[in-house]
Amino acid sequence: MGSPDQHTELWQWSATELAAAVRGREVSAAEVVASCLGRIEEANPVTNALVEVRADEALDAARRADAAVAAGEPLGPLHGVPVSIKVNTEQRGYATTNGVAALAGNVADEDAACVTALRGAGAIPLGRSNVPAFSLRWFSGNDLHGRTLNPWDHGRTPGGSSGGAAAGIADGFTPLAQGNDIGGSIRFPATCCGVVGLRPTVGRVSGWGPPAYAETPEGRTPLDFPPTVHACAVQGPLGRTVADVRLALTAMTTPDLRDPAGVPSVPRRAAGAGPLRVTVVRGDGDAKNHPAVDAAVTDAAARLADAGYEVEEGDKTVAEPLLAEAARLWLLLLTEDTRPLLRVVEQIGDDAIRAALAGHFAAAATVWGERPDLETYISGWGRRATLITRLQQLLGAERLLLTPVCAEPPFEQDADLAGARRSGELFPAMWPMTSVPVLGFPAVTVPVALHEGLPLGVQLIGGRFTEEAVLDAAQAVEDRSPVPRAWAARGSSA
Question: Are strands 399-404 and 82-86 parallel, antiparallel or unpaired?
């Protein structure tokens, strides 16, 4: 994916390259931050990926980082590396707006655990990344912060809900970003913007945050998150390269028993483990893949085979129906857990999120009916446990799944607002994104090719706590996939 030289700006370097250069005193953290701030000033007015940047605060942090280097203090793996933090994640002194105007004054007193971990590793928060209102769309625009554009094509979504995070990496604002994922919110934006996104195993990265509140006309109300947030949502990294994401995962892996899903320690892959078997799963039968999507999967399979993986095509008896059922369960469990939020959305949400959620509920109704009863909901949780066991038995420690990211290339902007027919097409197309959160397994998306000027990626899924194996396979794909950076593809160095 390229390396730094005298012809590249610091904002174009990867996180891995920057961390090594700061540690080796080849560049200063202040120089890195200043370069990224210059790029943000130049390009963010168009892309609108970062919605709050405090340059003086970031430069002060960079100077402290340089003082630590000069003093010979122990340095974390991300020392001096800029990172963005999503506006739905608590960062002390910043409003956790979640893209909602009524939450603009919701200033956090302390950091979420994942932000604490990034700071502890030496990363320097550089800005807050944009989301859709309530972080509940595969698009990233809201009435408070405006719309984020995809640096590759302004008419296509940058993805959501971590669309600002991915677009900011793609446009050179930061080499790393923190995101979260309950339905593709890390992996889909990464693919739309031609970067790498990792959804870790549930419990590996702490999801703990300070107590949350909703500001409604009735006043400040404490929020207790529903079961799907604890069982399906994760915090994780987006990065310019697989190596960047691997480095960030190391920093963010913080066993934390305050997190209801947190684990006390993380199993490690055996040293010297080699390439694994890869099963290709192309579709669930409800959505036909675009030819370019199928071609990207075929290319990735060939590149994995070239790297020594044993690749088998088309498991339609176990893996495909299992993932298809998991995607349908996502429509049941997440939708029903979202239903109590509808009153708040109606009160303080914007028109886009109201319309998008109406489309979401309509899509769920085609599978589960207008109002699934309690027995159906409880049975869904029971079935989820069965599917987790079956998939873990299938994958073990020696198999990965290769899937599309979505049955379509990146959607046109606001496709979910383009009427019932178009909105209803999105959910079947996104089965690779929605099946994984229900099961809680790790998955990474990595760019493979360009199609009509847009990046296309693939997804690799592994058994629980097999992030190293998943990232090894993603690295093999990346090494053989010369996808350019967005700024280079546009024929400019800026």
Answer: unpaired
Per-residue pLDDT tens digits for 67-97: 999 999 999 999 999 999 999 999 999 999 9
Domains of the chain: 10-489 (3.90.1300.10)
Q: Which two tokens stand for residue 395?
A: 């994958």
Which residues fall within 8 angstroms of residue 476, CB to CB, at 6 or more apart?
275, 303, 304, 307, 309
The one-letter amino acid at 307: A
Catalytic residue among 84, 86, 129, 162: 86
Q: What's the CA dihedral at 124, 130, 134, 135 to 10 degrees?
A: -80
Tokens 């949350």 found at:
212
Model confidence pLDDT, tens digit, residues 101-130: 999 999 999 999 999 999 999 999 999 999
pTM of the model: 0.96
Could you say which of 135, 140, 161, 423 is catalytic?
Answer: 161
Mean pLDDT of 243-256: 95
Residue 316 annotated among the catalytic residues of the structure: no
Is-catalytic flag, 185? Answer: yes
Which of the 8 DSSP states describes residue 364?
H
pLDDT tens digits, 170-210: 999 999 999 999 999 999 999 999 999 999 999 999 999 99
161 in catalytic set? yes
Distance between start and end Cα atoms, the chain:
17
pLDDT at 317: 72
Element (H, E) at 450: strand 443-451
For residue 389, the model assigns a pLDDT of 97
Q: Find the catalytic residue in 14, 135, 162, 185.
A: 185
> 185 or 285: which carries more pLDDT confidence?
185
State the Cα angle at 129 between 128 and 131, rounded to 5°: 130
Ramachandran area for residue 263 (φ above 0: left; ψ -120 to 50: alpha; else beta): beta
Instruction: Find, among 172, 177, 133, 118, the residue nearest to 414 by Cα.
Output: 133
φ, ψ (nearest 5 deg) of residue 447: -65, 145
Length of the chain: 494
Cα 85 from Cα 361, distance rounded (Å)? 29
Alpha carbons 169 and 486: distance in angstroms, whole number: 10
- What's the CA gap between 292 and 290, in Å, rounded? 5
**Cβ neighbours of residue 449 under 8 Å, at least 6 residues apart?**
292, 295, 296, 299, 455, 456, 481, 483
User: What percent of the chain has pLDDT above 90?
Assistant: 87
Predicted pLDDT at 2: 42
